[in-house]
């Protein structure tokens, strides 16, 4: 049995032939991952194999139908159809905003209560929370992931709500502040990020340790160079050829701090100052950060 089973539902299942290439293809060959792609149209019953219909309330485009998705997902999840007496998203803004924090805590608790051997149902959605390295790390420990690829104007909002009501671990993620034609690209991105963290996937596990966004105090990775030391008149930083591993490590750490400060200052602001050593704090101060509090600030 593979360490992770992955089911992908799409109207273009052939798109995922790309997953047979490179390291993910090798991981499948080694039995670390088993990927199955399914054509959503196989669960339709009309002559046109329709998976979408016009939006309720009017508007442009088409919306993917819940009944087709439900037949497919019920089969993959091993669930029987249920009637849920509930109207979802009846109001856009809660009547009592004091309850918002409690609601978010409850949702987090619902996610946390599912064991790693429970399937996770994942829908890419540009309106959802951003998919992060922390999400990839957590999902890499799961045994069964099911991805649903939306198309057109997206999927009926009752689909994820129905399966949450069935106690399924349902996630919706965005991979960035832009809109794609469908969820296939987003699923491929998430799968690359998730599967490479499975034990045995990478030839050299150490290559993951210093990557961007890794760890609690995440930074962007330092710049990388290879031979020749001088290329078209451009030399690599001399410290990297000094043979002094301590100086090399410090140089790379300072470079990571400077690069992150310039490109992603939000990551610097999120650092825990109590976990930074004296040299880290000195480097940040030189970059214009105040490190006297719990987190760096300008």
Can you walk me through this structure?
The chain has 298 residues and is α/β, with parallel strands linked by helices. The protein has two domains: 4-205, 3-Layer(aba) Sandwich (Alpha/beta knot), CATH 3.40.1280; 215-286, Orthogonal Bundle (Trp Operon Repressor, Chain A). Helix content is 31%, strand content 12%. It contains nine helices and nine strands. The chain has helices at 22-29, 66-77, 100-112, 133-139, 158-165, 184-195, 245-263, 265-269, 278-286, and strands at residues 4-10, 33-39, 52-53, 63-64, 120-124, 144-148, 169-173, 230-231, 234-235. A five-stranded parallel sheet has the order 2-1-6-5-7, sandwiched between helices. The chain is elongated, with a radius of gyration of 23 Å. It starts with a strand and ends in a 12-residue tail after the last helix. Mean pLDDT is 89; it is low at 102-107. Belongs to the RNA methyltransferase TrmD family. Its EC number is 2.1.1.228.
**Largest sheet, spatial ordering of strands:** 2-1-6-5-7
The CATH topology of the largest domain is Alpha/beta knot
* Estimated structural class: alpha/beta
Q: Globular, elongated, flat, extended or rod-shaped: what is the shape?
A: elongated
CATH architecture of the largest domain: 3-Layer(aba) Sandwich
User: What can be said about the biggest beta sheet?
Assistant: 5 strands, parallel
The level-1 CATH class of the largest domain: Alpha Beta
User: Secondary-structure element order, as H and E?
Assistant: EHEEEHHEHEHEHEEHHH
Average pLDDT over all residues: 89
Rg for CA atoms: 23 Å
How helical, in percent, are the residues? 25-40%
The number of helical elements comes to 9
The CATH superfamily of the largest domain bears the name: SPOUT methyltransferase, trefoil knot domain
Instruction: Tell me the fraction of residues in β-strands, as a range.
Output: 5-15%
């Amino acid at each position: 049995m593979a360490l992770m089973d992955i089911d992908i539902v799409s109207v273009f299942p052939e798109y995922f032939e790309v997953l047979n290439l490179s390291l993910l293809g090798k991981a499948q060959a080694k039995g670390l991952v088993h990927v199955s792609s399914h054509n959503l149209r196989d669960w339709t019953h009309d002559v046109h194999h329709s998976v979408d219909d016009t939006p309720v309330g009017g508007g442009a485009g088409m919306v993917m139908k819940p009944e087709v998705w439900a037949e497919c997902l019920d089969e993959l999840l091993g669930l029987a159809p249920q009637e849920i007496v509930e109207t979802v998203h009846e109001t856009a803004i809660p009547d009592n905003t004091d309850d918002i924090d409690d609601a978010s805590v409850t949702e987090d608790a619902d996610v946390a209560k599912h064991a790693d051997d429970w399937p996770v149902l994942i829908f890419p959605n540009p309106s959802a929370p951003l998919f992060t390295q922390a999400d990839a790390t957590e999902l890499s420990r799961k045994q069964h992931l099911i991805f649903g690829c939306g198309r057109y104007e997206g999927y009926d909002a009752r689909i994820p709500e129905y399966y949450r009501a069935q106690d399924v671990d349902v996630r919706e993620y965005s991979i960035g502040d832009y809109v794609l034609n469908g969820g296939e690209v987003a699923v491929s991105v998430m799968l690359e990020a998730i599967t490479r963290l499975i034990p045995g996937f990478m030839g050299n596990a150490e290559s993951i340790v210093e990557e961007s966004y890794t760890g609690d105090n995440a930074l962007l990775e330092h710049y990388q160079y290879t031979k020749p030391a001088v290329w078209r008149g451009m030399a690599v930083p001399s410290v990297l050829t000094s043979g002094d591993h301590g100086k090399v490590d410090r140089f790379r750490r300072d470079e990571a701090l400077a690069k992150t400060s310039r490109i992603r200052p939000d990551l610097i602001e999120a650092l825990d100052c109590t976990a930074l050593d004296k040299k880290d704090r000195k480097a940040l101060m030189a970059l214009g950060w105040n490190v006297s509090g719990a987190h760096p600030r300008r």
